[in-house]
Amino acid sequence: MKQILLFLFSLTVSAQAEKGMQIKDTLAPKLENIKWISGNWKGEAFGGQTEENWSEPSGGSMMATFKLINKGEVSFYEIEIIREIENSLVLQLKHFDNDLKGWETKNETVDFPLIKITPTQVIFEGMSFEKVSDNEMNVYVDIKNDNGEVEIVKFNYKKSS
């Protein structure tokens, strides 16, 4: 019996230590803590080339443009922002065809509320950024496939000069 109690006690201490580390590694929801996302990024996804250009934080937000090129032609664009709202961050975006006709209605955005920030991750509900190095990051996006199932699509980006 003593061994079982000791085992349960060590599991509890271990779980509390892990929680403490998570709290310690979690950063405040401030743009300054995610400025490593800023820059000009290039990669490949959906069978084509991608470009994503993020501004430095200013005016309570960061903004980005995204472009997917397939077979030498633009497939679609996105305008994205991350802004500070009510002591948190939210990522919002709008999609556009190659002729800038919007996918969402005039007053509609696709919103991703913040879950948490660590020194190397920014995790929003449905989209996350992972810092691999100063010149490489991964972006993971939840996308519904034709069957209605959610797939996680990985975009690997390298920072361009």
UniProtKB/TrEMBL annotation:
InterPro entries: DUF6265. Residues 35-142 form the DUF6265 domain. It comes from the Bacteria. This is DUF6265 domain-containing protein. It comes from Psychroserpens burtonensis. The lineage of its organism: Bacteria, Pseudomonadati, Bacteroidota, Flavobacteriia, Flavobacteriales.
